[in-house]
Amino acid sequence: MRKSFYQFILKYRSKKKGDELGAFAEEIYNDHAFPKYSMDYHEISSYLELNDTALNSVRLFDQVWDAYEQEVLN
Hints:
- The chain is mostly helical.
- 62% of the residues lie in helices and 0% in strands.
- The protein is built from four helices and no strands.
- Helix 3 packs antiparallel against helix 4.
């Protein structure tokens, strides 16, 4: 069974200062409304754009999505 994006991003969780990806993953983990079972780029991207004002998060999402596609979806 393939992992959802949420399951994939959890491996990057980190509370180390300066770790942007770790902080992004931690924010997703703490967001109880995040679409945890989705494997759809547009659904997750729209969710982040509508619910997150940090442009940095959208940039990070695009980078991590590429890794997600290569590792999980292909």
